[in-house]
Amino acid sequence: METDNTEDIESLIEDMQYIPGHFHLELSLNCDPVGPVNLRFRDTLLKQESLQAELEVEVGHLQYAVRNLLGLLAFHLDQPDKAEEIFRYKTLTSSVKVRQREIILIMLSVWILVILAASNRNTTLAWCYVGIMLERKDEFSSVPMSIHDCGFSASDPLSCFGTVTFILNLLAKIIFLLGKHDMATGICNMALNILPDPELNWEAYCMRAKINVVVYVNQLEKAKHGMGGVPERQKLADARKDLDKVLTVRPCLRTHLEMAQIYYYMGVDALQETIMVDESSINHALVSLSKALQFKPADSLPDLHVLRGRCLLIKGEEQNAAECFKQAMELERPGSTDTTTLHCLLLTLLNLFILEASDPSSAITQLETWVNKAEERYPQERVKSELRSLYRTHTEEVTELSKTLIRTGRLGLVKRLLETVAPQQLAERRPLARAFSLS
């Protein structure tokens, strides 16, 4: 007589932090809407694109879970026809081939866990995974047991190739997130040795390019703080080659944006981003950004506008750059602690003030307006920190700005600047002009 395990299963689920599968994803679709409409639309659209890429490599019943989520996202994006088409989809894939791919996926997943456990020096855990694999050796014995065998399997060789490279690309992402850049690059190289066609294995090229850019940026930050030598610009050249291959077969928003970043770094000095060394590369970056803007959610990405503003700023187009930074700041989430956009905008408006010395009223008005907006969007301490940084790195310019503000009776911004460089008590007890000690 069979026993009813319903209660046990329900109690088990209640104790879980999340239900296995895609159901633990924080999609926030059935909750009350929060945040600006354009940002909610952007986030939903980006989730849809991410799942669409995942669907290309999912096998077995997992693909139905992904399709269900894609249908749900399409519905929330006001795409009812597309949602209906997705929900009506029926697969014709042979169950035997699907089962073979599932087993290969399990086998390679166990291999990944062994590598991760070993890399963290948890050999006990690694041997546990090996034990699991050995217990299921009868099931695994009917499928190819090596990458080489997968490639020359009598049935479905391309499918096996795709599964193996998918796992390797996933492993590269995990290793990259752990900060092991050399190891992640090596895994990308393995995936590309197996399947070098950029149309079928574009993710490996993108991942390798991203690693090279991140390594370059890390080297750049260390060099700026006197902790290393000049960053390797060859990293940028290698990343550009990889993305060139991807763009020939799969042009998309992300790739164009990453290519623009590469061209930007190729166009500026290796240590001082305020110095342009190759105008052609900066122009290429702007072209890549223009191509990225042709994709639907691009205009709502603050990073894109910040990068475009930086390119325009280094070309001497301060006002156009300021407009880009303003647009990026409008797209920041309220309460954000990342004030990179504010930093760029303040610096640009200060430059405009210096350039328009004969009639600086426009630059001053913009500064007052956007400092007020910044205080509504970012935590107060973050805004003060940026103003303090502006004063410390551009003391002469800020001093001249303060003199002009006092002379024209616009004391609100002066007070904010004063509070960043003097104790609060000092600002309260002394008259504003004397406290600032301007000559």
Short description:
This protein has 23 helices and no strands. With 439 residues, the chain is mostly helical.
Task: Give a structural overview.
- This protein is mainly α and 439 residues long.
- The protein has four domains: 1-92, no CATH class; 95-196, no CATH class; 209-285, no CATH class; 330-439, no CATH class.
- 71% of the residues lie in helices and 0% in strands.
- It has 23 helices and no strands.
- The protein has helices at residues 6-15, 37-55, 62-76, 80-87, 95-119, 123-135, 137-140, 147-151, 157-177, 181-194, 202-224, 234-249, 253-267, 279-292, 302-314, 318-330, 340-355, 361-377, 380-393, 395-407, 411-421, 424-429, 432-436.
- Helix 5 packs parallel to helix 9 and helix 13 packs antiparallel against helix 14 (279-292).
- It is globular, with a radius of gyration of 27 Å.
- The model is unreliable at 17-25, 129-134, 139-155 and 423-439 (pLDDT under 50).
- This is Tetratricopeptide repeat domain 22.
- InterPro entries: TPR-like_helical_dom_sf, TPR_rpt, TTC22.
Roughly how much helix do the residues carry, as a percent range? Answer: over 70%
- Quaternary structure of the protein: single chain
Return the string of H and E elements: HHHHHHHHHHHHHHHHHHHHHHH
DSSP strand tally: 0
Structural class: mainly alpha
Main sheet properties: none
Mean pLDDT: 76
Q: What form results from the Cα inertia axes? A: globular
Distance between the termini: 96 Å
Number of domains: 4
- Spatial extent as radius of gyration: 27 Å
Give the helix tally: 23
Low-confidence stretches: 17-25, 129-134, 139-155, 423-439
| Percentage of β-strand residues | under 5%
InterPro entries: TPR-like_helical_dom_sf, TPR_rpt, TTC22
Protein name: Tetratricopeptide repeat domain 22
